[in-house]
Amino acid sequence: MRHKWLHAVVSVHVPDLTPNLLTDAERHALIERYTQGYQTVLAALEGISNAELDAKTDEWSAREIVHHLADSEMTSAIRLRRLLAEDDPQIGGYDEEAFARILHYADRPIEAALDALSAARRTTAEILSRMTAADWSRAGTHTQSGRYSAEDWLQIYAAHAHEHADQIRRARSQAAQ
Questions:
Q1: Helices marked H in 3-130 — which ranges?
Q2: Is the pLDDT of residue 16 over 60?
Q3: Domain coordinates of the chain in residue numbers?
């Protein structure tokens, strides 16, 4: 699979949680980290050249990472909404390699993808700030990882943009060498 790095990260960040295992303080810190994700990605991209945008590390270029983030964040926004609005939803995974290839990640401009990332994060942050203890205990079943709760979702996506911002920095660093 092309995006092995993310799958390794996801397996680390998807513990088998029982409902409301996180404290309010832990949840608040994760929400804060989530809300900072977009700016972290922008900072990693600041002043990026075309050569740096297309340099690859971990098999992904910064351009491809931005498109992955946009698609992943739009998908994640719907996942959270389904966890909250449906009883025991089945949360589907998707083939990241197919998305990258079929949706032309390697050659599309990144501006619209950055807009999508920002919008998905902003609208979802509005929901996160209003969630109750009962909301945090809601869960469904992820087709690739099993039990999947709102807290699992938060732990994954609080880290997601930051981890990819680090990947962008590595790609830029390698391009500069």
A1: 4-13, 24-45, 50-54, 62-85, 96-102, 111-128
A2: no
A3: 23-176
**Is residue 167 pLDDT above 50, yes or no?**
yes
- The CATH homologous superfamily of the domain defined by 23-176: dinb family like domain (1.20.120.450)
**Across residues 61-85, what is the average pLDDT?**
97
Instruction: Please give the mean pLDDT across all residues of the chain.
Output: 89
Q: Could you give the CA distance from residue 59 to residue 7 in angstroms, rounded to a whole number?
A: 13
Angle at 34 between CA 112 and CA 15, to 5 degrees: 120
Alpha-carbon distance of 108 to 111, in angstroms, equals 9
